[in-house]
TrEMBL record, chain A:
Organism of origin: Maritalea mediterranea
Subcellular location: Cell membrane
Taxonomic superkingdom: Bacteria
One family name in Pfam for this protein: BPD_transp_2
Assigned protein family: Belongs to the binding-protein-dependent transport system permease family. LivHM subfamily.
Name under which the protein is recorded: Branched-chain amino acid ABC transporter permease
Protein's membrane topology: Multi-pass membrane protein
Keywords assigned by UniProt, alphabetized: Amino-acid transport, Cell inner membrane, Cell membrane, Membrane, Transmembrane, Transmembrane helix, Transport
UniProtKB/TrEMBL annotation, chain B:
SMART domains linked to this entry: AAA (SM00382)
Pfam families recorded: ABC_tran (PF00005)
Top-rank taxon: Bacteria
UniProt keyword Nucleotide-binding, yes or no: yes
Protein's UniProt name: ABC transporter ATP-binding protein
Family (UniProt): Belongs to the ABC transporter superfamily.
Listed PANTHER family: HIGH-AFFINITY BRANCHED-CHAIN AMINO ACID TRANSPORT ATP-BINDING PROTEIN LIVF
Keywords, in A-Z order: Amino-acid transport, ATP-binding, Nucleotide-binding, Transport
Organism lineage string: Bacteria, Pseudomonadati, Pseudomonadota, Alphaproteobacteria, Hyphomicrobiales
């Protein structure tokens, strides 16, 4: 039982990170139909900012907002430079563009920083643990869960209460008509990228705080997982992305913990098999987006 | 000479090889109700969408209120005082009624003007006030059409472009919609309305243009057109 609870905490921590990443992918996809595979590189950028801040002796308290600022700014810049010129192209063109952006950034990281994994200095407190009701919980896991919850609440408030948040939902549903209302296409899309960059930054900090290192390909695996999570939840659906992220986190952690040792080798295929099973039962994902029409008159 | 509020010159709209609008000219004077008629595929929506900036023009010029608005981005138009309520209503179904209306007032800054817009729309459509927290997607077709018009009114436009507001509605609701067009016009809104319901449209309109294959086939005072017996057969696909 104790092991189960312990693993459940781990699943929430990992699932929360996937949820934040999947949400970042979904926000951009819902607005402009782009699956941004360079999302992972936004994570990597935030990771490197943490690393450099550590090297420069800047306290973690300041490093975190700097890292978030960097990934947010990088996301907006990415849209402006790479995605705006292909905005009205097909989904495939945008997808390929995002692969190109990801590869260019990876090569830049490898050449300008290092091919190898670099250590990131983290506050000691993060590697400690605390006892809650007989459970030993890593501080980093706890921080991950709390940060995820805060981000989800923040985003939910923004999208349901703020004029610009409502405009983003309107644009996600019918971009052309949103424009007819006077909602500027450029502003909404830049806003979507800013939010996705912020989410990638938070996810990066949580990811790095579990591993204490950063490398040029750091973002690849988690964003691939987030992509699976977004599809699992229903591509373009924000609530779906969150649900898919958590479900994937649970599947991975529980399989790692409870699969018999002989089967551990097949953990990933079994996990993906479960995902496929869910999609066979719910082809549009757990909580599909209301409007799947990528209308762009 | 007073300039027309909306002036369209040699408007040309193409989708690849498809010539949807073929060099049409027309104008709408301040305070008029103008009907744009024509069979399916005649180019009515293409005309409105081109004016609103939703589709690019291939040639020609659109002047509104003394300003050249040809190929202006759609988000710029509400600020100039012209809004389009598009074909098929297209309310934001996953937003509440009130959120839909709020989006209609997106570009407005003055809180007094915004408050007046809410008042006006909720007075015109009490049902929308009643249903303000309901998802727009769960409204009936007629209610959605009222929301679509209400949303377009939230920016307090001088001119309203309506694309088939009576489409798919029950006869009683259609009557309400045409009454509404008259009411809005009496409130000072100039209206360009695309319609398939020819008789009703000609009843409320001052003048009408009839499109066929992207060209203006005939035009004139609404009552003259209504009296002409061969209008239906000649241009509107019979019946
Ligand atoms: N996005 C598009 N791509 C290609 N062709 C289009 C597009 N939109 C319209 N057309 C074509 O342009 C022509 C005019 O279409 P339009 O929608 O303007 O007609 P309409 O008069 O509004 O018809 P309806 O009464 O059916 O709404 C039609 O032949 C139509 O097939
Ligand atoms: Mg039409």
């Amino acid at each position: 039982m104790e092991l189960f609870l312990q693993q459940t905490v781990n699943a929430f921590a990992l699932g929360g990170t996937y949820a934040l990443l999947a949400l970042g992918l979904a926000v951009v996809f819902s607005i402009m139909g782009l699956i941004n595979f360079a999302h992972g590189e936004l994570m990597t950028i935030a990771g490197y900012v943490l690393m450099y801040c550590g090297l420069a002796g800047i306290s973690f308290v300041f490093a975190v907002p700097l890292a978030l600022l960097a990934s947010t700014f990088a996301a907006v810049l990415m849209e402006r430079v790479a995605f705006r010129p292909v905005r009205n192209s097909s989904g495939a063109t945008m997808l390929v563009t995002s692969f190109a952006v990801a590869m260019i950034l990876q090569v830049l990281f490898q050449n300008l920083i290092s091919v190898r994994s670099q250590p990131v200095l983290l506050p000691e407190a993060l590697s400690g643990s605390i006892m809650i009701g007989g459970l030993v919980i890593g501080v980093n896991k706890l921080v991950a869960i709390i940060s995820t919850v805060i981000m989800l609440i923040f985003l939910d408030r923004f999208l349901s209460k703020q004029k610009y948040g409502i405009a983003m939902r309107a644009a996600a549903e019918d971009f052309a008509v949103a424009r007819l209302m006077g909602i500027r296409a450029n502003t909404v899309i830049a806003g979507a990228f800013a939010i996705s960059g912020l989410l990638a930054g938070v996810a990066a900090i949580l990811w790095v705080s579990q591993r204490a290192s950063v490398d040029p390909l750091m973002g690849f695996t988690p964003v691939l997982k987030a992509f699976i999570a977004a599809i699992l939840g229903g591509l373009g659906s924000l609530r779906g992305a969150v649900a898919g992220g958590f479900l994937l986190g649970f599947i991975e952690i529980y399989l790692a913990a409870f699969l018999p040792p002989a089967l551990q080798e097949f953990r990933d295929p079994i996990g993906l098999g479960l995902v496929v099973l869910v999609l066979l039962m719910r082809p549009n994902g757990l909580l599909p987006a209301a409007s799947l029409k990528a209308e762009k008159v | 000479m007073v300039q027309p509020l909306l002036q369209v010159r040699s408007l040309d709209v193409r989708y690849g090889a498809v010539q949807a609008v073929d060099g049409i000219n027309f104008e709408v004077e301040q305070g008029e109700i103008i009907a744009l008629l024509g069979a399916n595929g005649a180019g009515k929506s293409s005309t409105l969408n081109a004016i609103a900036g939703l589709v690019p023009t291939f040639g020609g010029e659109v002047q509104f209120d003394g300003q050249n608005i040809t190929n202006l981005r759609p988000e710029m138009l509400p600020g100039l005082g012209i809004t389009l309520s598009p074909e098929g209503r297209r309310v934001f179904g996953t937003l509440s009624v009130a959120e839909n209306l709020q989006m209609g007032a997106f570009g407005m800054k003055d809180p007094h003007e915004i408050a007046a817009a809410w008042d006006r729309v909720y007075t015109l459509f009490p049902i929308l006030a009643e249903r303000r927290d309901q998802f727009a997607g769960t409204l009936s077709g007629g209610q959605q059409q009222m929301l679509a018009v209400g949303r377009a009114l939230m920016s307090n436009p001088k001119m309203l472009l309506l694309d088939e507001p009576s489409l798919g509605l029950a006869p009683k609701i259609i009557e309400q919609i045409f009454e509404l067009i008259t009411t809005l016009n009496q409130q000072g809104v100039t209206i360009l309305v695309v319609e398939q319901n020819v008789s009703m449209a000609l009843e409320v309109a001052n003048r009408a243009y009839v499109l066929a294959n992207g060209r203006i086939a005939t035009s004139g005072a609404a009552k003259d057109l209504a009296a002409s017996t061969n209008l239906q057969n000649a241009y509107l696909g019979g019946a």
